[in-house]
Amino acid sequence: MEQRSKNKLIKLLEKTLERLSSIEMLDYKTLIEEAFGESSEDNDADDLRQAEGGEPEPVFGEIPKWEQISEIKGLSLCRDFLTPDQQSTLISSILQEGWFTDASHNQAMRFGDLPAWANELSTCIRELIEYSNYDLESMELSSEMDGQDCIFPSKLINREPLFNQLIANSYQPGEGICAHVDLMRFEDGIALISLESSCVMHFSRVVDEAATNDNRIEPKIPLYLTPGSLLLISGEARYHWQHEINRKPGFQIWDGQEIVQKRRTSITLRKLCTSE
Ligand SMILES: O=C(O)CCC(=O)C(=O)O
Ligand SMILES: [Fe+2]
Q: Residue 172 pLDDT more than 80?
């Protein structure tokens, strides 16, 4: 690595550690492991690599990979947000709430004070966003990453709390959610965590029928949501696109194959608008 980049990286790490230690957190990876359990990956691998004189791993563990959807601005997907062990821990925490013990209940909402596991999840999301949005060149939170939009509007990251409303959905095979734009009483910047079954979420642009004579139906954009993934929805994707999950036969096709459906659990985190 070039010396200039090394210095910048060291500065970034110092700054980040300073900020994190002030809130008693070590790093995104440690934090997420504390909240949702140890990753089952081989943790000795880093020590071994260093002992062999190789480059140490970055302090945050694996650099999270984000996918952005070229047709829709404001959608960012991190597939490896939670490891399988962390997903199981999160599922247990959700089940312990007792929301879904009665088969007729498939949705729970909480406003204001969220359960501790949801606050931990929020903190992990904030840390991951801050880390991912950080621009190594300017040493500041950026609004663009490699020519792409940043994964979450920088101005929202520092709001307190980041999220104060939660929905937990438990969908049986065949059950999904109709096309909708999340209510305007919620601010911009929504996080969605998928657990258990994979599914295809479809996005369709909101058309103002009064303002257009164009009756062409635009194709829906499919997005494959895998267990443990984190989807961030903001800006255009939040306000100008509807999202839906149709789990009726024939709608859950990915790579030419119908997805085998199991129960799917999801967590939606949002912030209520403050009335002035
Ligand atoms: O279950 C999901 O992944 C989506 C949930 C959703 O769209 C919502 O809670 O508004
Ligand atoms: Fe939604």
A: yes
Tokens 């100008």 correspond to 240
User: CATH homologous superfamily for 63-270?
Assistant: Alpha-ketoglutarate-dependent dioxygenase AlkB-like (2.60.120.590)
The helix or strand, by DSSP H or E, that contains position 231, with its residue range, turns out to be strand 230-233
DSSP label of 60: T
Q: Note the pTM of the prediction, 2 decimals.
A: 0.80
197 CA → ligand 2 middle, Å: 18
Strand order in the sheet with 165-171: 67-68, 75-78, 230-233, 190-196, 264-270, 165-171, 107-111
Helix axes 84-96, 28-36, angle to 10 degrees: 50
Would the pLDDT of 94 be above 90? yes
Tokens linked to 174:
């065949």
Contact 165 CB / ligand 1 (< 6 Å): no
Q: Could you tell me the residue ranges of all domains in the chain?
A: 63-270
Distance between Cα 6 and ligand 1 center (Å): 41
Candidate from 268, 270, 271, 272 with most ligand 1 atoms within 8 A of CB, to mutate: 268
Residue 34, Cα to own-chain centre: how many angstroms?
18
**With left for phi above 0 and alpha for psi between -120 and 50, is residue 112 left, alpha or beta?**
left
Distance 144 CA to ligand 1 centre (A): 27
Q: Are residues 85 and 39 in contact, defined by beta-carbon separation less than 8 angstroms?
A: yes
Residue 195 near residue 266 (C-beta atoms within 8 A): yes
What pLDDT score does 216 carry? 73
For ligand 1, atom 3, the nearest C-alpha belongs to 266
